[in-house]
Specification:
This protein is an alpha+beta fold. It is about 25% helix and about 30% strand. It has 11 helices and 23 strands. The strands form 4 sheets. Strands 1, 6, 16, 17, 18, 19, 20, 21, 22 and 23 form a 10-stranded antiparallel beta sheet that branches. β20 and β21 form a beta hairpin. It catalyses: D-mannose 6-phosphate = D-fructose 6-phosphate.
Length: about 425
């Protein structure tokens, strides 16, 4: 006997942060318009983030009846798997970035609880916020500390920075990259000194360094990034960030995983993001928002990050599955294919949300079906059976499905044999 499974279209939220692309240039904004989430696009207004989830800062609602998805899940536990907890444990976003986001990190669960208890205004929940970012266009970012030996070279090349250090700290520059874990302690000493420098002194050195680079005829790629940040945030300590952090570009489809306490800043481009259901961000530069240098320098992971790109799993049907290890709140599946393709979605013991970036498809479970177009978002009930949602693609299609993996799914990841039934 075929079952009735809830497939509910959702109305979601757009945030208009200043770093977002404006009007039709914003992928986040155009998706929201095409999907019926907003009535129009203002050509002079930034549309930075399209949010899909139950977080209080951007809650989704069921289009059919206007009920908040969070309220529906809290009162209808049968819509979720046994391992889920009456809400979505993740937050899914589409970002359109034209100006740098803040230099930032996200706390661990333990740190999130401490920050929220101490300062609930600036840390609005007590959760951690690990996140994965998947590029939709060429996407530029800073993420993780460079090799320490390279940082040492750059501190000498951009020698103006040394004016912010004591003689003892200057003497430690050659030790970066030389002593394993001790090298991370040296980096913490130097980085903390620079980021704790009083604003007036910082502005003088930032200006001196940036203007010297501006006067050079032949600029390196790193020079160009420093100058770019200086034009956006003159005098800001974040202008120094590319000297310390890896700069790289993700091509469409490539991803990076940002674990707790990993420093990062997005610079340009469009991406999708999925993270634990949290908005906890510790900022320390390139932002007019609240800055918490003390928390950042104490919590930062100062180790080298040698490979900031994340490689997903490829399932038997060719779709990609992003399963960051150690994270229980979310996995992300890319569903992509030409007209005529058919997918059966795995891990249907979890509820999920499917966000369509382009194309058309019909999702069917049992006797229930919904046709989806660009910008539409579908909540898919957990099936509690072997019956799996089927996606029939009628026009070239790209969508991302986010869900909370069950213990069975997590066990399969640990055994390096992903089950897909």
């Amino acid at each position: 006997m075929e079952s009735f499974v809830m497939l509910l279209k959702l109305k979601c939220t757009v945030n208009n942060y200043a770093w977002g692309a404006k009007g039709e240039a914003s992928m986040a904004g155009s998706l929201a318009l095409d999907g019926g989430h907003i009535p129009n696009l203002d050509k002079d207004k930034p549309y930075a983030e399209f949010w899909v989830g139950t977080h209080a800062n951007g809650p989704a609602h069921v289009i059919e009846n206007g009920i908040a998805l969070k309220q529906l899940l809290a009162t209808s536990p049968n819509l979720q798997g046994k391992h889920e907890n009456g809400k979505l444990s993740f937050l899914f976003k589409v970002l359109s970035v034209v100006a740098p986001l803040s230099i930032q990190i996200h706390p661990t669960k333990e740190q999130g609880k401490i920050l929220h208890a101490k300062d609930p205004k600036n840390y609005p929940d007590d959760n951690h916020k690990p996140e994965i970012a998947i590029a939709l266009t060429e996407f530029e970012l800073l993420s993780g500390f460079r090799q320490h030996s390279q940082i040492s070279e750059y501190l000498k090349l951009y020698s103006e920075i040394q004016e912010l250090l004591t003689e003892e700290e200057k003497g430690q520059i050659d030790n970066l990259g030389s002593y394993g874990e001790s090298s991370s302690q040296v980096l913490k000493l130097i980085f903390s000194r620079i980021w704790r420098t009083p604003k007036e002194q910082l502005q003088i050195v930032v200006d001196k360094l940036a203007r010297r680079i501006q006067g050079q005829e032949n600029k390196s790629a790193l020079d160009e990034i420093i100058v770019y940040l200086f034009t956006m945030y003159p005098g800001d300590v974040g202008v120094f960030a590319p000297i310390f952090l890896n700069y790289f570009k993700l091509q469409p489809g490539e991803a990076t995983f940002l674990e707790p306490n990993m420093p990062h800043a997005y610079l340009k481009g469009d991406c999708v993001e999925c993270m634990a259901d949290s908005d906890n961000t510790i900022r320390a530069g390139l932002t007019p928002k609240y800055i918490d240098v003390e928390s950042l320098v104490e919590m930062l992971n100062y180790n080298e990050t040698l490979l900031p790109k994340y490689i997903p799993n490829e399932l038997e049907d060719g779709s990609l599955l992003f399963t960051p290890r150690g994270i229980e709140e979310f996995w992300v599946q890319e569903v992509k294919g030409p007209a005529g393709s058919i997918y059966q979605l795995p891990y249907s013991e979890s509820c999920s949300v499917l966000t369509v970036l382009y194309g058309t498809a019909t999702v069917t479970v049992g006797t229930t079906s919904q046709t989806l177009n660009r910008g539409e978002v579908l909540f898919i009930e957990a099936t509690h059976s072997t019956e799996r949602p089927k996606v029939n693609i009628t026009d070239d299609f790209l969508a991302f499905r986010a869900f909370t993996p069950s213990p069975r799914a997590l066990d399969s990841l640990s055994s390096k044999h992903l089950v897909i039934d």
